[in-house]
């Protein structure tokens, strides 16, 4: 009976904590751990870090922009470079990474490892 409820809770939210399951079902954390690992065959894995997630369209757009910038440099030379350096536009990227512990989730032994992207463009 508890096994089915634990399985339903994990399927609903892969990052659920054992203490939350134990509190919801009013059983010990040790019993929850035993059900998860022995009876259900889950294990906790963390995401594999991949630098960036870019689509084919994003890659094509980056190539087009780089080509345009190169053409402008070929045409304007040093004047173009000075406009970039002295320009008032700046691009700041804020990235609040998820810790390894936060990315951990339950998976079966044969399930593929989840991926966590450094930056999702």
Automatic annotation (TrEMBL):
Q: Name one GO molecular function term.
A: nucleic acid binding
What residue spans carry the Basic residues bias annotation? 106-121
**Could you tell me which residues belong to the region Disordered?**
91-121
Source domain of life: Eukaryota
Matching InterPro entries = RNaseH_sf (IPR036397), Transposase-MT_Hybrid (IPR052709)
What is the name of the protein in this document?
A: Histone-lysine n-methyltransferase setmar-like protein
């Amino acid at each position: 009976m508890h096994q089915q409820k634990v399985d339903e809770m994990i399927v609903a939210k892969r990052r659920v904590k054992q203490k939350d399951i134990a509190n919801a079902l009013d059983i010990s954390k040790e019993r929850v751990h035993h059900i998860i690992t022995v009876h259900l065959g889950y294990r906790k894995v963390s995401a594999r870090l991949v630098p960036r997630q870019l689509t084919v369209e994003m890659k094509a757009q980056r190539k087009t922009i780089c080509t345009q910038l190169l053409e402008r440099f070929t045409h304007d030379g040093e004047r173009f470079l000075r406009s970039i350096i002295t320009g008032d536009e700046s691009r700041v990227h804020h990235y609040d990474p998820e810790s390894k512990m936060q990315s951990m989730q339950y998976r079966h032994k044969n399930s593929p490892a989840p991926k966590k992207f450094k930056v999702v463009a």
